[in-house]
Amino acid sequence: MFEKIDQKKTLLDTKRPLSKYTLMSLREKLLVEWTYNSNAIEGNTLTLQETKVVLEGITVGGKTMREHLEVINHRDAITYVEEIVQRKEPLSEWQIKNLLRLILKGINDDYAGVYRDQQVFISGAKHTPPAPYLIKEEIEKLMSWYEQEAKQMHPVTRGAMLHAIFVGVHPFIDGNGRTSRLLLNLELMKDGFPPIVIKVENRLNYYNALDKAHTQKDYNDFIQLVAKEVEDSLDLYLSAFV
After folding, report:
1. Would you please indicate which residues are annotated as catalytic (active-site) residues?
2. Nearest-10 crossing angle of helices 65-87, 176-190
3. Which residues contact 4 (CB under 8 A, 6 or more apart)?
4. Hey, is 91 helix, strand or coil?
5. CATH dotted code for 3-241
6. Exposure check for the chain: N or C terminus, fewer CB within 10 A?
């Protein structure tokens, strides 16, 4: 499944390091698109261009304070992911809570960085997340899986499954989707892959693949969806050398 991806990744590695300004412009492009799409999947109504101007410090009329904060917070969470990658820190429960803290800062401070204490249901999904009293145990199982089985997996499989398992537990009251997509990219970036953007126009396929993973323990559709986005991001980076 990953032969083409691995070939493109090897080709990109031979061309590194990228020039300073190319790298900066690629980062800015992906930061805006990642922030826009991740927020739009969760219902944020800011357009791609509006997201860009909010990141530049401009307020968009007719949009809520929450929508503005979601953009700023997501940018800060991406910066945190980049810092983890630079420092080569192993994934921890504390990091996951920190990501959520950044996502919900100023939006829902009472639940920023703490596990939910209420049952939640995901609209449109067959899967029901575990009861609140099971969350700690489920996250411990996830971390154990990550530290043992996941280490043997291809980075794309590992990142996709980390995202899927985490969002299936749905450990927080809010911000689970954004946090899971940050965790997916964290795994990819640790292995030298560029971050990917799960596009809002693919939301239905994305949700269906996740629901299949949660209800049937069949992760193939979701891994393939992620692999397609990985290839797109590699193509974007390689296009800088044409």
Report:
1. 170
2. 30
3. 231
4. coil
5. 1.10.3290.10
6. C
